[in-house]
């Protein structure tokens, strides 16, 4: 699935929510993601979050709540998703809703006077494999003021990323991982708290047991 038409149709066939954003599992992932971002971004941040793959605005609203002085560009390829985000968050100030393919996004829409932070949560892997690197290169080229990218993804390989390959791609594009957090794991039994700590520090365990990981990348 890659095109606007495909996403619009998929959302319509699944009551607008194919990923189960109303479920406790996804809600916890979103809450943990905004918590991770808040560990290194001050609540008083007055810049702009460039959110690619904003879907129904569940994360858009969390960003606006946790960073009330910031602006958000909520970008999604799907008109269905963008319209849902507007219904959910259109009453909020400090947000622009943009329906656009992330690969062809017009970076002149980013306010030049505001410090940008890029969010690519659970969306980069929907691009074709060669396009993923181009996407990051475009950020570096067309948004030179950007210093930080928060990116979340499964690290199980196949259609997603392997962690080593992701880190290598980002480094080639001018970004290095400064921190990460495992958002959820495939193990939910026996010594889970200890196991989750080990997941944060041991790469081969993340490959086998981590469902989704959020990374903070900083410009080299």
Describe this structure in words.
This protein is an alpha/beta fold. Strand 4, helix 5 and strand 5 (148-153) form a beta-alpha-beta unit. It is globular, with a radius of gyration of 17 Å. It contains eight helices and seven strands. The chain has a single domain, classed as Rossmann fold (3-Layer(aba) Sandwich). The model has no long low-confidence stretch (mean pLDDT 93).
Strand content range: 15-25%
Percent in helix: 25-40%
Class by alpha and beta content: alpha/beta
Per the principal axes of the C-alpha atoms, what is the gross shape?
Answer: globular
The biggest sheet amounts to: 7 strands, mixed
* Main β-sheet, spatial strand arrangement: 3-2-1-4-5-7-6
Helix count, per DSSP?
8
> CATH homologous superfamily, by name?
Vaccinia Virus protein VP39
Task: Identify the notable features of this structure and list them briefly.
single chain, 220 residues, Rossmann fold, seven-stranded mixed β-sheet
């Amino acid at each position: 699935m890659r095109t606007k038409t495909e996403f619009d149709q998929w959302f319509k066939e699944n009551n607008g929510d194919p990923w189960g954003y109303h479920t406790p599992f996804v809600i916890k992932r979103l809450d943990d993601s905004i918590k991770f971002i808040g560990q290194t971004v001050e609540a008083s941040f007055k810049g702009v979050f460039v959110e690619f793959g904003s879907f129904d605005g569940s994360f858009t609203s969390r960003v606006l709540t946790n960073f009330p002085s910031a602006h958000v560009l909520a970008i999604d390829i799907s008109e269905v998703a963008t319209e849902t985000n507007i219904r959910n968050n259109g009453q909020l100030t400090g947000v622009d809703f943009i329906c656009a393919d992330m690969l062809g996004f017009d970076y002149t829409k980013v306010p030049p006077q505001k410090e940008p932070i890029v969010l690519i949560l659970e969306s980069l892997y929907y691009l074709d494999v060669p396009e993923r690197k181009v996407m990051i290169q475009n950020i570096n080229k067309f948004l030179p003021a950007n210093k930080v990218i928060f990116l979340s993804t499964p690290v199980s390989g196949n259609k997603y990323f392997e962690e080593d390959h992701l880190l290598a791609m980002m480094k080639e594009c001018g970004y290095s991982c400064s921190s990460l957090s495992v958002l959820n794991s495939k193990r939910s039994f026996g010594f889970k708290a200890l196991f989750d700590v080990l997941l944060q520090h041991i790469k081969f365990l993340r490959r086998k047991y981590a469902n989704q990981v959020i990374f903070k990348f900083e410009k080299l």
